[in-house]
Design a protein that fits this description.
mainly alpha; globular
């Protein structure tokens, strides 16, 4: 028998901080980005005034976008460290089992089988959402940099690409916002009120329902331990991390002094 009051550690402080930073950045970027996309709408004009005007709204948007870009770089370096150097598994990546779980879940939802799939630390739905987050963040960062320095990039690519970057940036932002309002909100606030990414703990009852295979491993004491750090793996990691940081610094040096997005034209009257 499960004990609903019992809670089991699911996330560490590292996961909680990552999520908190992403939450603040995403909410702020949506609040400052959508009013720019729909600038002619009354609600957008009102929201821009709340932030102190167009220029301040853009400045906040650029700052939060920079923080999100840095978090993406940090996440990639961190993933390389834990997977390659410490040799932890990467449970967020899809496996062949996820296809079988999806098929089993569809059959269960249709009433064709009596039992839902038995899933591990992350369900196939959570993995899809994670991949969408990574892909969406990469796309938003790339297109955001182009839009932040349009004149600089105009010297490297046709103007149509900058227009395409603007369309992709706005479209992906709207898609991400709607996805959070529907998909993510349903799974963590409607289907089951899940606060594990806030306090790190998940009720045993929810564990039994959503992640029974991981719970079984926890009960058996089968918790993966980090592997000893080998010299060659550490060397490769340092080289790869240095390459990533170096690429970021080179990009910043290339963009330095080029000015950001074209300033807003101030309205004026004739006569």
């Amino acid at each position: 028998m499960s004990h609903p009051e019992e809670r089991i550690r699911r996330f560490t402080a590292r996961h909680i901080i990552h999520h908190a930073v992403m939450l603040v950045c995403f909410a702020g970027l949506v609040a400052t980005g959508l009013p720019q996309r729909y600038a002619a709408q009354t609600w957008a004009k009102g929201l821009v005034l709340v932030f102190g005007g167009v220029e301040r709204t853009r400045a906040i948007h650029h700052f939060l976008g920079t923080v999100m870009a840095l978090q993406l770089v940090w996440h990639l370096i961190e993933a390389l460290w834990f997977h390659f150097v410490r040799r932890f598994e990467m449970p967020m990546l899809p496996l062949i089992n996820d296809i079988r779980d999806f098929y089993q879940q569809v059959r269960f939802n249709l009433g064709l089988v009596a039992e839902p799939p038995q899933m591990e630390r992350y369900t196939f739905a959570e993995k899809i959402e994670y991949l969408a987050l990574v892909w969406g963040t990469v796309l938003m960062v790339m297109t955001g940099i182009i839009l932040l320095f349009p004149v600089r990039f105009a010297s490297l690519m046709a103007g149509e690409w900058i227009i395409a970057a603007k369309a992709a940036h706005g479209g992906e932002a709207l898609l991400a916002f709607l996805s959070i309002l529907t998909w993510h909100a349903y799974f963590v606030h409607v289907r089951h009120w899940n606060t594990s990414i806030v306090n790190g703990l998940l009720e045993e009852e929810a564990y039994v329902e959503e992640h029974p295979l991981e719970l079984q491993r926890i009960r058996r004491g089968e918790v993966q331990s980090p592997a000893p750090i080998s010299k060659w793996r550490l060397t490769v990691f340092v080289a790869a991390a240095a390459a990533v940081v170096g690429a970021v610094l080179l990009l910043l040096a290339w963009l330095r002094g080029r000015g950001i997005a074209i300033p807003t034209i101030t309205a004026f009257r004739f006569g």
